[in-house]
């Protein structure tokens, strides 16, 4: 690996985190030209293009290697600064972490809150089936993911199971599924999905022998709003067990396929680089998961 200096790595980190050379310049209190010069110098030293000049800016495969290095150096620098500085604001490390929306909207934020006075969290909302990609490219240093096998340079810890059940508003179920979840009925019944990466509903349909392309669908990309959309009758959707049970108690929701559910096993992966902030965050997440997940 070519010799690089800290200002170049900081510039790379800022360009990726801010999404542009302009944003990096503001964050680093530099001119855009100065940021560009540092990136060009780094790419010259490496002998490869590291930054994709897109909006938002990203990294190439080679750039991901140096982005990981930049985050590791930044993490160690933050920890060293925290050990010697009297200024709490200057010494607070920043941890970029990927979290799936359902976890973020329920048990993760209460787990992180006690650490918020000492650690600054840069949370990336990402589907649990895709969050490991953010570890691979250096965007985050830890992630809640369905991937059990550790990403290279990471450790993996099983957190537990988040159970989902297919739920629908009572009146809509009576209208669209009068004879239950038959293939013909499911092919016509409207459903709610989180976003284009959400495969929970489509997976259920495939298990039922239904082409997922057939039913009409609503996209609602926020956990609380997703649950509300199902409760209001936009369509059926796979809800976390606690939301499903609450809807049943209220008499608003009905399980359209009793006994059938989808269990999503979550894992906590974090870089093997040891820093106090990362280790404390991992411990807090694991403890909260043990109390909330199956």
Task: Give a written overview of the molecule.
The chain has 294 residues and is an alpha/beta fold. The chain is 46% helix and 20% strand. It is built from twelve helices and eleven strands. The two termini are 44 Å apart. The model has no long low-confidence stretch (mean pLDDT 91).
Query: Number of DSSP helices?
Result: 12
Low-confidence runs (pLDDT<50, min 5 residues)? none
Could you tell me the strand content as a percent range? 15-25%
Report the order of strands and helices: HHHEEHEHEHEEHHEHEHEHEEH
Rg (C-alpha, Å):
22 Å
Average pLDDT over all residues: 91
N-end to C-end Cα span: 44 Å
Proportion of helical residues: 40-55%
Reported for the largest beta sheet, the result is: 7 strands, mixed
Which geometry do the CA atoms define? Answer: elongated
Beta strand count: 11
Strand-pairing-aware structural class? alpha/beta
Short structural summary:
The chain is α/β, with parallel strands linked by helices and 294 residues long. The chain is 46% helix and 20% strand. A hairpin with a 5-residue loop joins strand 1 (51-52) and strand 2.
Describe the structure using short key phrases:
294 residues; alpha/beta; seven-stranded mixed beta sheet; two-stranded antiparallel sheet; 20% strand; elongated
Chart the SSEs and their pairings:
Blueprint: H1 6-18, H2 21-28, H3 32-46, E1 51-52, E2 58-59, H4 61-84, E3 94-99, H5 101-112, E4 120-125, H6 131-136, E5 142-145, E6 154-169, H7 170-176, H8 183-188, E7 191-193, H9 200-207, E8 217-219, H10 223-232, E9 237-240, H11 241-250, E10 253-255, E11 262-271, H12 276-292
Parallel strand pairs: 3-4, 3-5, 7-8
Antiparallel strand pairs: 1-2, 5-11, 6-9, 6-10, 6-11
Helix pairs in contact: 1-2, 1-3, 1-4, 2-3, 5-12
């Amino acid at each position: 690996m070519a010799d690089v200096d800290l200002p170049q790595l900081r510039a790379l980190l800022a360009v990726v985190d801010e999404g542009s050379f302009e944003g990096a310049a503001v964050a680093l209190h530099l001119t855009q030209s100065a940021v560009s010069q540092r990136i060009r110098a780094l790419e010259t030293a490496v002998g490869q293009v590291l930054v994709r000049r897109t909006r938002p800016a990203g990294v190439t495969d080679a750039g991901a290697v140096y982005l990981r290095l930049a985050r590791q150096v930044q993490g160690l620098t933050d920890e060293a600064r925290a050990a010697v500085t009297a200024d709490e604001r200057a010494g607070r490390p920043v941890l970029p972490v990927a979290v799936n929306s359902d976890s973020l909207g329920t048990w993760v934020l209460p787990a992180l809150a006690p650490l918020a006075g000492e650690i600054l969290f840069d949370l990336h909302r990402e589907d649990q089936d895709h969050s490991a990609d953010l570890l691979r490219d250096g965007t985050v240093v830890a992630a809640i993911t369905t991937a059990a096998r550790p990403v290279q340079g990471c450790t993996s810890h099983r957190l537990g199971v988040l159970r989902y059940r297919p739920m629908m508003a009572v009146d809509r179920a009576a209208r669209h599924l009068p004879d239950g979840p038959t293939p013909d009925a499911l092919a016509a019944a409207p459903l709610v999905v989180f976003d284009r990466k959400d495969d929970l509903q489509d997976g259920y349909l495939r298990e039922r022998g239904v082409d997922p392309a057939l039913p009409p669908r609503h996209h609602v990309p926020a956990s609380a709003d997703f649950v509300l959309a199902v409760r209001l009758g936009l369509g059926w959707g796979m809800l976390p067990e606690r939301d499903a049970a609450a809807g049943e108690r209220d008499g608003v929701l009905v399980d359209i396929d009793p006994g059938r559910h989808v269990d999503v096993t979550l894992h906590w992966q974090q870089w093997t680089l040891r820093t106090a902030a990362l280790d404390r965050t991992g411990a807090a997440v694991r403890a909260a998961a043990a109390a909330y997940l199956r």
